[in-house]
Structure formats: C-alpha cells, structure tokens
Design brief:
The chain has nine helices and ten strands. The chain has 265 residues and is of the alpha/beta class. The chain has a single domain, classed as P-loop containing nucleotide triphosphate hydrolases (Rossmann fold). A six-stranded mixed sheet has the order 6-7-8-3-9-10. A four-stranded antiparallel sheet has the order 2-1-4-5, covered by helices on one side. A hairpin with a 2-residue loop joins strand 9 and strand 10.
Length: 265
C-alpha cells in the first residue's frame, strides 16, 4: 500500500503518502505519564498519517493508546517526544493560546457525549465555533450552514435546546457544528457510544457521506468493528504503536483481526 504500513513501527523513516496529501501526521510520537517505577508509556514511537479527504478509523485494544494518539493529533495533549503536524503546520511545541486558535479554526470535534451547550438552542450550538472565534459567518458560510441543517434534518429543530432532542438528533447537531467551519480535519471519539445501533448507523452514514460528498477528512477512534467498517481505512494500534492498517473491511473481518491481535498480545 502507499499509506502508512506496519513498517512505521520499526523503521526510522515512516512511509507516508506525499505530504501534500496528508491533513495530519505524527512521527515517532511517544507519550509518557509519571516517572520511575510508575512511569507509563501510552504511546511508544507511533507514526501515522491521515490522508486528506478520507475517513480513517483508529482501532486497538483497551490501553493501546488510540485516544491518546487522537488527543495529540488534535492538539489537546502534547507528546513527550516526536513530532506532530496539522497540514503544513508543526504543532509539537505550540503554546496553549496558539493551539486554541488552531483548533478553533482548523479542527472539528464529534464526541460520544455530544458536548452541546445546554442553554443554547440548536442554531446557536451550530454557530458556536464562529462565536468563540469572535466572528460571524460570511454569506457563503451561512449558506453552507443552511445546507447542513437541511441535509441533516434539523430544519424544524433550530429553536430547540439539547434536552428537547433525542440522542441521534443531538449527535446530528454536533456533526453540523463540526462541519460548519469546513475544518481541515474532524476528530470523532467513539461518536456512536451513547446511541442505539440503528441511530449509530445513521450517524456513521452521515460521517461517511461527509467524506465522500464534501471531501471532509475524518479521523475516528472506535472499538466497534461495525463503526470501523464505515471508514475508508482502518489503522490498528497495539502497545502504543501503529502495527497495521487495512482498507475498507467488513465488521466480521475487522473482528477477526482484532481477536487475533488480542490472542497474540
């Protein structure tokens, strides 16, 4: 394959697609917590590139480092060693204020817990990234938001507050908010974890369509083989390092591979 391969764990020079085709990457990332006998390595030389315009799933057993890797790529946490890039911007040593602006303008988030502001209605929640950045959407951006609202079936929910919505509707609002600024990359952390299976599939379909239709780059952390089967590419972590990747696969194929990983551990 021409993407990241398992050789990235052991080689000094990870194999990536051409850099102009990557929306984010980490190189030899290590993340340690504690010191001495209590020291824990959440990441151990992890290298990964997220291709632009693709839906990438990041999987691994509990404790494999997948959430830590996502937080580092999103600028929510820092590496102990290694390098982190968002597009052509190295964010490894950026200060908190710089990271805050970068996340606000170039990154979107979809979380398991929705993270909507309970006192704001749907319209205000969707436009929140603009408010936090101290700006109003342009005419073109407003038209894009209107399109998102309509395509996500939220037109008749704009004046509702989160507690008046179902879980699936709340996650649709979170997706609209994440897409509103047309970010370079959306990070989705177990986005269907609080949803029933039918609603979860609907949400995953929306994320996949955002990638296929709008060219949105998405990196999703999940433990669920069904969720991962919606992605274009599946990256597997073990013991804090990238150990393999697969193109689109069925839930059964993914489950079988994950079982094999656990048996080899």
């Amino acid at each position: 394959m021409d993407n990241v391969t398992s050789s990235t764990v052991t080689t000094a020079a990870p194999i990536f697609p051409p850099l102009e085709k990557l929306v984010a990457r980490v190189v030899n990332a290590t993340k340690s917590y504690g010191a001495g006998a209590g020291r824990v390595n959440a990441l151990h030389g992890a290298s990964l590139g997220i291709p632009a315009g693709q839906f990438t799933a990041i999987m691994g057993p509990s404790g494999s480092g997948k959430s830590t890797l996502m937080h580092i790529m999103a600028g929510l946490d820092s590496v102990t060693s290694g390098q982190v890039w968002l597009g052509d911007t190295e964010i490894t040593r950026l200060q908190d204020a710089e990271l805050t602006v970068l996340r606000r303008r170039r990154v979107g988030f979809v979380f398991q817990s929705f993270n909507l502001v309970p006192t704001l209605d749907v319209a205000a929640n969707i436009r929140l990234p603009f408010e936090l950045d101290g700006r109003r959407p342009t005419r073109t951006q407003s038209e894009w938001i209107d399109h998102l609202v309509e395509s996500l079936g939220l037109t008749d929910r704009l004046t509702h507050r989160p507690h008046e919505l179902s879980g699936g509707q709340q996650q649709r609002v979170a997706i609209a908010r994440a897409l509103a600024t047309r970010p370079d990359l959306i990070f989705a952390d177990e986005p269907t974890g609080n949803l029933d299976s039918r609603t979860g599939r609907e949400v995953l379909t929306l994320l996949a369509e955002a990638s296929r239709t709008y060219g949105q780059s998405i990196a999703m952390v999940t433990h669920d083989p069904i969720a991962a089967s919606f992605a274009d590419r599946i990256v597997f972590l073990a013991d804090g390092a990238v150990v393999d990747e697969r193109d689109r696969a069925t839930p059964e194929e993914i489950s079988g591979y994950m079982l094999g990983m656990e048996q080899r551990a």
